[in-house]
Specification:
Oligomer: single chain
Length: 854
């Protein structure tokens, strides 16, 4: 990674010097299907780039970006430059610039196995080769020479030569074809990181979106959706197109700026590192959003949210782009918010804010309590910083803050501000002030103070109700107490709940502006005594909710009786935060999940509760209680599985949870019986995806050997099956297995990104703490070298995934501190990852101490 970084200062200096007029990029991808692997070095393709640009200081020097094994030639304004003299593996030095310049770079670029640049995937099912590109934040330079920073936008024309029988797509529509070479339409001015090429024998489905506007004008957008041929039988393209059209309707209704990028293709691609990427005209998604088996509505909701998130980027991010990664929130926070906003208003998924409150915000709360927390508008010094800032602050906290902003300025003012922002800055680059100025204009609000409190400071506040009662038992005073390093203004709703006809329902509500350390909610004085006080009812602000003692006692008895799904989700979220903060014993949280999760109507919330309950037992429970806690989870899961409606999505969810928690011999016999058909649960369809979920815990217990796993792979000889089998193989409880898994990830770069991730997941088994304990010191010996030698994506996977979190002891904490102390000069991004893991470990130890005290 050294030499590949780009600092903010360098980017600013280059933007001051250059203006880019056009790119012509020609790629020859026929080598993708060569049968023989190269004898020396990586498999490569030819990339020829012509960049036309201007320099405002003739005679000045700069550099172009390119990461490639070799460069054949570099020509600047007709002058041949010596590639060995000007190219250092990451940059091409350019001097003697003219006022108007033409740069031509002919290079041999490498196919990727890490999901960065031009990723090459060979389908084990049929041997077909599939390609796609992924660049954010700065991997377009792995495919063509460029000026790799978001504020040097330009129009692009791509020309791609591909193997016989392949299809090829790019951002623009195909304009012409000459033999095996396709030429695509010139794009609007866009940034390097959102250019895209997808190529291969993909299965492709088409549709059309049509819209007639109030002025009588018409818009027609060709739609396409594609996946590997092996997934075609599972591809529900009609639902993808339905959400797509509903999204376009919503954004056209509210943004008053027609989609500006022509066609709209959506590619579901293999071994993808992200959820999706918003390349205009050619959006890419991870192929796991094509469901091979039965899934719950929560999975369809998650896919819809991602589709709409990426569509929002066509305006927030692609049409108007941040100048530098400091203002990444200008696209990601907005897209995250607009994904849920549009989904709840325009699609069948009306409870999207419930999922947002319980799932998305939990990501933000965790990130905002790490030592690496940062303001929503971050200080991004370089590209490594940028890579790590695609985090819970930038996405989920930013979206939560925008939800608060809508309550602050009003929905109409917010959307009018967006409309003016698009029209004023179309195809340009912006900073924070550009948006705040227009929002202040339309709302009349002081956006500078709001921004200072919410966008330019870090940390999360906790809001706690404090009540006193009069002699008649009514509320004499209800105050909201705010904790935190930075006391912010909050617009909150406070709800009072009581039991009525067996349900816990709201009978009084008041909105208030909470500011400072203590705010009295005068409207609720005189109200009858509540069973539950819910601060931040309806989830208007971003905060951690706390409870008074009476409310917490009521939840222990009546959480399942809380009738409103959003209020219930908010309570679950608050209880989880209490557990993570060491204020509630982990076993108490587990007991509440076992008592009330079976009554949870929202299957998305249920899935989150299952994940949190497992984490509570694995990381936050006292060590001496873990085994008992695991048995209680498994017993509860099996009980709910048998009670669930046959064939329901709740039954499927409890089945997966039971498989993940199975702990006794009887549990494992049942899993084996479900696999071989000797055990049946009425209505439960054990499809291929569920079969892998049942097999992994058997492998981790040593009850499924290599031959059994190979037999399952033969049954599911697909890319998905390969990932599952690799995870199962690495899960087996053997010293030799763990040594092989470690070596394949840490000592070798032969595995693709997806198989690295699968191997790590199998290696880290909660029931194998003693077996993998020897790898804790090896981790700290290896991570420096891993970070230096591997791509940043693989580096992140290894540093995060192999941290010895399961060795939750003071000794592991001390070893982490020792590494941090002795590596003060390590790459800041690497130190950040280790600091975050250290914080999680320290939090787990505090929670364990709290649980042990119980």
């Amino acid at each position: 990674m050294p030499g590949e970084n780009l600092s903010r200062d360098e980017a600013h200096e280059r933007a001051e010097l250059l203006s880019v007029d056009a790119y012509e990029v020609s790629l020859d991808l026929r080598s993708a299907v060569d049968e023989a692997e190269p004898a020396d070095g990586p498999r490569t393709f030819r990339s020829v780039t012509t960049v036309t640009f201007r320099a405002n200081r003739p005679g000045a020097a700069t550099f172009a970006d390119l990461i490639a094994p070799s460069v054949n030639s570099v020509t600047l304004n007709g002058r041949e430059l010596d590639p060995e003299a000007v190219f250092d593996g990451a940059r091409i030095a350019l001097d003697g610039l003219a006022a108007e310049n033409v740069l031509v770079v002919d290079a041999n670029c490498a196919y990727s196995r890490t999901g960065e640049g031009m990723h090459r995937f060979v389908d084990p099912e049929d041997g077909e080769v599939y390609l796609y590109t992924q660049y954010e934040p700065a991997d377009a330079r792995r495919v063509y020479a460029n000026f790799e920073q978001p504020d040097l936008k330009a129009p692009y024309r791509f020309e791609v030569t591909a193997p016989e029988g392949w299809q090829v797509w790019s951002n623009g529509a195909e304009e012409s074809r000459d033999g095996l070479t396709r030429r695509f339409a010139v794009t609007e001015p866009i940034s390097t990181y959102i250019t895209c090429v997808v190529a291969g024998p993909y299965h492709y489905v088409t549709d059309t979106y049509r819209r007639t506007f109030a002025d009588g004008s018409e818009l027609e957008i060709p739609l396409g959706a594609m996946c590997r041929k092996g997934l075609a039988k599972h591809f529900d393209a009609d639902d993808v197109f339905l959400i797509t059209k509903q999204g376009f309707d919503f954004f056209h209704d509210n943004f008053d700026y027609p989609y500006p990028f022509g066609k709209y293709d959506q590619a579901f691609v293999p071994e993808y590192n992200l959820g999706a990427m918003e390349n205009p005209g050619m959006v890419t998604f991870r192929e796991e959003y094509i469901f091979r088996g039965k899934v719950t509505q929560a999975s369809y909701e998650a896919r819809a949210n991602v589709i709409l998130h990426e569509m929002a980027h066509m305006w927030f991010g692609d049409l108007v782009t941040m100048k530098w990664w400091d203002d990444l929130w200008l696209k990601e926070s907005f897209a995250d918010f607009m994904g849920s906003f549009s989904m709840t208003e325009a699609t069948r998924f009306k409870n999207g804010w419930v999922t947002f409150a319980n799932n998305r915000k939990s990501w933000a709360y965790r990130a905002d309590q790490l030592p690496s927390t940062h303001p929503v508008t971050a200080d991004i010094r370089d590209l490594e910083d940028a890579k790590l800032n695609f985090d819970g602050i930038t996405y989920a906290k930013g979206a939560s803050v925008l939800k608060q902003l809508v309550a602050y300025v009003g929905r109409d003012a917010f959307l009018e501000g967006a409309r003016r922002y698009f029209k004023a800055n179309a195809y340009g680059n912006t900073r924070l002030d550009d948006l705040l100025t227009v929002l202040a204009e339309v709302s009349g609000r002081d956006m500078a103070e709001w921004s200072r409190a919410w966008l330019q400071t870090a940390g999360v506040n906790a809001l706690t109700p404090v009540l006193t009662y009069d002699d008649a038992g009514r509320i004499a005073e209800l105050a909201v107490v705010q904790d935190g390093d930075e006391l912010r203004p909050h617009r909150v709703a406070v709800g009072l709940y009581r039991i009525e006809q067996g349900a816990l329902v709201r009978y009084a509500r008041a909105e208030a502006d909470v500011a400072g350390a203590r705010t009295v909610v005068a409207e609720l004085s005189g109200a009858e005594r509540p069973e539950l006080v819910l601060v931040n009812d309806e989830d208007l602000t971003y905060c951690k909710i706390r409870f008074d003692e009476g409310s917490l006692a009521a939840l222990r008895k009546h959480l399942g009786d809380l009738s409103d799904p959003l209020a219930r989700a908010l309570c679950w979220s608050a209880l989880w935060n209490l557990t993570r903060d060491g204020l509630m014993p982990a076993r108490d949280f587990v007991s509440m999940v076992l008592a009330f999760a079976g009554r949870e109507s929202d299957v998305g919330v249920l899935q989150i509760l299952h994940r949190q309950a497992r984490m509570a037992v694995t990381h936050y429970a006292a060590p001496e209680w873990r085994e008992q806690g695991g048995r209680e989870l498994a017993a509860g899961a099996l009980h709910e599985l048998r009670q669930a409606e046959p064939g329901s999505e709740h039954q499927l969810t409890w089945a997966r949870f039971f498989a993940a928690t199975a702990s006794t011999e009887a549990d494992h016999r049942l899993l084996a019986g479900l696999l071989d058909g000797t055990a049946l649960i009425d209505g439960l369809d054990v499809d291929q995806e569920l079969r892998w979920d049942l097999l992994e815990p058997l492998a981790a217990e040593g009850l499924a050997d290599e031959a059994r796993i190979a037999a399952e792979l033969a049954r599911d000889d697909t890319a998905s099956g390969k990932r599952h089998s690799v995870r199962c193989l690495a899960a087996r409880p053997s010293e030799a297995v763990k040594a092989q898994a470690w070596a394949s990830v840490v000592e070798s770069d032969a595995l693709s990104n997806a198989l690295v991730e699968a191997t790590i997941a199998g290696f880290q088994q909660a029931g194998q703490r003693e077996l993998i304990a020897p790898y804790a010191p090896k981790y700290f010996e290896a991570i420096d070298r891993v970070w230096a030698d591997r791509s940043i994506q693989i580096g992140i996977l290894i540093v995060q995934g192999l941290f010895p979190a399961l060795q939750s002891s003071d000794e592991t904490l001390a070893a982490t501190d020792a590494w941090l102390s002795s590596h003060a000069d390590a790459a800041p991004a690497l130190r950040r990852l280790v600091l975050e893991a250290r914080d999680d470990l320290a939090r787990a130890l505090r929670a364990q101490a709290r649980d042990a005290a119980e």
